[in-house]
Structure formats: C-alpha cells, structure tokens
Specification:
This protein is an all-alpha fold. It is built from eleven helices and no strands. Helix 7 packs antiparallel against helix 8 and helix 9 runs antiparallel to helix 10.
Length: 262
C-alpha cells in the first residue's frame, strides 16, 4: 500500500513538472490526495500512519530538484499536505464539537441577558421609589444607580473579553487553515472574529489615534482574509498570520489617559 502511495505521488509530481505546475501549493495537494486515500484504513495516531507520512514526504524530497528557499517551501508543503490528510477526521470532530460549544455559548448569553434585564428592572424600581423621597435622598439614589449601570470597570472587562474572543477565533482560523480545516471552517472562525471585533470596537470620541489605527488595521486584515478565502487563493496562510499578529498588537492598546485616571 505504501508503494502505491509513493508511485502515485511520483507520477503526479512528474505530471506537474511537465505542465509547469510544480509549486508548493500543488505539492501539498498531491501529497494530501495520496495520503487521504488510505488514512481511513488506519487508527488515528498509529505507527502505520506515521510511516505513510514519512514515506510520502521522502518521495517528494527524492523527486524534486529545487534548492534553497524553494526547496524548503516545497518540503514544508509536502508535510502540511500529509498532516492535513491525517487530521481530516479529527477536524470533522472539531467542527461538530465547535457547533455544540456555540449552542452552549448562546444559552449562556441568553442567561446573562436575563440577569441584566432583571438587574435593570430592579434598578428602575429603586429609582421609581426614590421619587417619593426627599431631594437629597433621590439624588443619592439616582447617583448610586447611575454608578452601577455605567461602571467603567464592567465596560472595560466586557471590551477585553470581546478582544480575547476575537483573537481566539483568529487563532483557530490559523490552525484550521494550516492543519487541514475546510474553507467553511476557516470562514466560520473569521465571521466569529468579526462579531467579537465589532463588540470590542470603542466609541470614536473615547479613543486616541493610536487605538483607532490598531482597530483599523485589524479590520483591514479581517476583510483581506475574507477576500482571499472567498477566492481560494494560496496566500491565505500568510494573510491569516498577518491578521493574527495585528490582533496580538491590538490587545496591547492603551486606554485613554483621562478615562483611566478617573
């Protein structure tokens, strides 16, 4: 069986050479296709699978003559192609689990909204009661309620949470793109990142220029990643990597000095 895979890879590589298509992306597809045909016949994590991956990569090395950076890129592509094939089943399980996680998160969001509505109702009732008190008492009650409703600490926590969730979704998109996730999976993660990014977006009048620039940079990279994915262009991994770096820098943003010192 291993010999069959080797022969298929060798034949496909030769055809790619003859048609001038022997590039890293094509090598990745060739190895992934060959390994995918037998991966389901072996237990995940088995020694047989590891042997097949090793033989597939060795076959590529033996049948390409390029050197330097191109050689490294092509070897890397062969390894990635083999890993994508081996991990395809695991990715199906990940997608299923992710769907279950989203359902649980939606339930949590609903419960949190219910709590917030309950709190708002209680505070409104307290304010209503305050109208029957003296002016000083009413002022004190209104001030206390306003402090609770507009806590800057809570707002900052929500913002940081949204930022972290956006970055986590970007990390997952990178992992899915690098280790065999389908384009639909990458798209779901990018959509999730956009959603959390929008929730973390600060009000224009409350941010400094540096923060605005970082938000614009992440927004631009999110849009670029979506465009590249839609066109199925091979530079997706590079764009996602740039997006990840932008998101990491985005988390370092500083709050406006006048807000922090209040």
């Amino acid at each position: 069986m291993t010999n069959n895979i080797k022969e298929q890879i060798k034949t496909d590589l030769q055809q790619a050479k003859e048609t001038g298509q022997l590039r890293a992306e094509r090598i990745r597809e060739i190895v992934k296709s060959a390994v995918s045909q037998v991966v389901s016949e072996f237990k995940e994590g088995s020694g047989e699978l590891r042997s097949i991956v090793k033989d597939a990569v060795s076959t590529v090395i033996e049948n390409i003559q390029t050197k330097g950076s191109d050689f490294k890129e092509e070897v890397t592509a062969s390894i990635e192609g083999a890993l994508e094939a081996v991990n395809s089943k695991r990715h199906e399980n990940i997608i299923k689990t992710q769907a279950e996680v989203k359902q649980l998160e939606a339930k949590l969001d609903e419960e949190e909204n219910n709590i917030q509505q309950e709190v708002d109702g209680i505070l409104a009732e307290i304010q209503k009661t305050g109208t029957e008190e003296s002016a000083d008492t009413k002022t004190a009650i209104d001030s206390a309620v306003n402090t609770i409703q507009n806590s800057e600490e809570v707002a900052l926590l929500k913002k940081r949470y949204a930022q972290l969730r956006a970055q986590l979704a970007i990390v997952r998109a990178n992992l899915a793109a690098r280790y065999g996730g389908r384009s639909e999976e990458v798209k779901d993660y990018l959509d999730e990142a956009k959603n959390w990014f929008n929730q973390a977006r600060p009000q224009a009048e409350a941010v400094v220029t540096q923060v605005q620039q970082k938000h614009s940079q992440v927004e631009e990279k999110l849009g670029e990643a979506g465009t590249v994915l839609a066109k199925k262009e091979h530079q997706l991994r590079q764009v996602l990597r740039e997006l990840l770096l932008s998101a990491a820098d985005w988390l370092k943003e500083k709050e406006p000095v006048d807000k922090v010192n209040k």
